[in-house]
């Protein structure tokens, strides 16, 4: 039941004067790690407001210099492990042109799965030979274009290999192996793998460059052991005259959003009482990841001497991280359009309506919740206020945050909410112009000695 009238206003004021994070209807704080450039943006008294006024609606901010830092970390992990490594950015994780440009300038390739993604990567300076083409049942147009540009093509099925051969141009391929015991619809099982290897002749136009696999989850040991099995595939293929000098282990490199204490407190004390309309399913992303990104790659290389085995056999290891190359490389910004108060367990909390939708926080559309706390801007003094965040649509379930977040003060119309670290999948994998609302544009922020500079990403012009 909502609060109304003078008595309700007094109750709200009394509550806010004595609010603590321990109230049973309020979730504990979950502040995200913030990149230095983003902190500089938050500390600027004017810039965020100026961008919001110029854009006139929700928007995403991207920090391409951070992408370059993340690419460099993966490259360093390969160097420290003594392994010849290839880093491909999983483009499906973010559509922004500035991200691909940063990868091209940092010596990383790009993993694409459509003609649109392939063309977009070429347009940002990625050379054809630095493309990995993945995905199931690729169209003839994609196969032909990939072959013409010398991209490495991951073959997912025998009939796909047949179609590629029928197209005619020379092509480099890896065969995607279905791991033993997996029920995935992707990849070649043992019988299909044998059939595909026999179909590729060592003197033909198709070159068998190696093998690949993808695993769900974030287990470094499982990836290392599967990579070890693929070394044997490479050696066998070499004995039959194929180059077979590449193994791709895909993505799934975790990202560390939160400190260990915040994550364990959330998991150990999780309560339905923290959520407006009930808690989502408990299948949360592991928002605290002790060995994320490049550290996880180092763990893969170290397991059971994998790095040495790769070196001894002159095999290059390819990785296709998406989220991990976007760690702390962007945020999503929404303007508060309305504020109302409700009660839970006899305590008041606020529900905000912002000028965007939960389609711009994709985790919400997987029966889950994006957990890192949004930052309320501008920063002003006030009392902790449990707050949920709703979207500007007519759908009851369209909530950016069902969790009652302990905002440091009460939000007001015109304030901005900044959801941190959303560049990896959250920004646009599910965005839609529902209600004929415009898609949030992407703003590129670059750090200069005198000030931060911003421009629109080419995908938003």
Automatic annotation (TrEMBL):
GO terms for biological process: lysine biosynthetic process via diaminopimelate; polyamine biosynthetic process. This is Diaminopimelate decarboxylase. Its cofactor is pyridoxal 5'-phosphate. Pfam families: Orn_Arg_deC_N. One of its GO terms (molecular function) is diaminopimelate decarboxylase activity. The active site is at 394 (proton donor). The keyword Transferase does not apply. The modification N6-(pyridoxal phosphate)lysine is found at residue 92. Keywords: Pyridoxal phosphate. Residues 74-269 form the Orn/DAP/Arg decarboxylase 2 N-terminal domain.
């Amino acid at each position: 039941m909502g609060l109304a009238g003078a008595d309700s206003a007094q109750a709200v004021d009394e509550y806010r004067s004595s609010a603590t994070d321990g109230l049973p209807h309020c979730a504990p704080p979950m502040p995200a790690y913030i990149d230095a450039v983003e902190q500089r943006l938050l500390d600027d008294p004017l810039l965020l407001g100026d961008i919001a006024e110029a854009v006139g609606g929700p928007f995403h901010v991207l920090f391409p210099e951070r992408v370059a830092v993340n690419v460099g970390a993966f490259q360093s992990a390969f160097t420290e492990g003594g392994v010849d490594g290839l880093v491909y950015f999983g483009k499906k994780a973010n559509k922004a042109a500035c991200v691909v440009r940063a990868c091209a300038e940092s010596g990383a390739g790009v993993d694409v799965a459509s003609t649109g993604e392939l063309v977009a990567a070429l347009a940002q300076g990625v050379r054809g030979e630095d493309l990995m083409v993945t995905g199931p049942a690729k169209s003839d147009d994609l196969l032909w274009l990939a072959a013409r540009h010398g991209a490495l093509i991951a073959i997912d099925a025998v009939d796909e290999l047949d179609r590629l051969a029928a197209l005619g141009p020379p092509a480099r391929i890896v065969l995607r192996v279905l791991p033993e015991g997996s029920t995935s619809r992707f990849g070649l099982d043992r019988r299909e793998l044998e059939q595909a290897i026999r179909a590729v002749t060592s003197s033909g136009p198709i070159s068998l460059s190696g093998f690949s696999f993808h695993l769900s989850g974030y287990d470094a040991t499982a990836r290392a052991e599967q990579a070890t099995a693929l070394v044997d595939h490479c050696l066998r293929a070499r004995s039959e005259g194929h180059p077979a000098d590449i193994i791709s282990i895909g993505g799934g490199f975790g990202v560390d959003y939160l400190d260990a204490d915040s994550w364990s407190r959330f998991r150990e004390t999780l309560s339905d009482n923290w959520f407006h309309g009930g808690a989502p399913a408990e299948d949360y992303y592991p928002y605290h990841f002790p060995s994320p990104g490049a550290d996880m790659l180092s763990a893969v290389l170290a397991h059971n001497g994998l790095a040495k085995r790769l070196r001894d056999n002159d095999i290059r290891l390819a990785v296709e991280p998406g989220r991990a190359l976007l760690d702390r490389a962007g945020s999503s910004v929404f303007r508060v359009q309305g504020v109302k108060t409700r009660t839970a367990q006899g305590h008041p909390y606020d529900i905000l309506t912002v000028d965007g939708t939960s389609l711009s926080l994709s985790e919400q559309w997987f029966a889950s919740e994006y957990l890192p706390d949004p930052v309320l801007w501008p920063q002003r003094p006030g009392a902790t206020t449990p707050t949920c965040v709703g979207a500007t649509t007519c759908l009851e379930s369209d909530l950016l945050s069902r969790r009652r977040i302990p905002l440091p003060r009460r939000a007001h119309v015109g304030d901005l909410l900044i959801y941190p670290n959303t560049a990896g999948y959250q920004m646009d994998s599910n965005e839609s112009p529902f209600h004929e609302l415009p898609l949030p544009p992407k703003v590129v922020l670059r750090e200069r000695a005198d000030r931060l500079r911003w421009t629109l990403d080419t995908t938003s012009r």
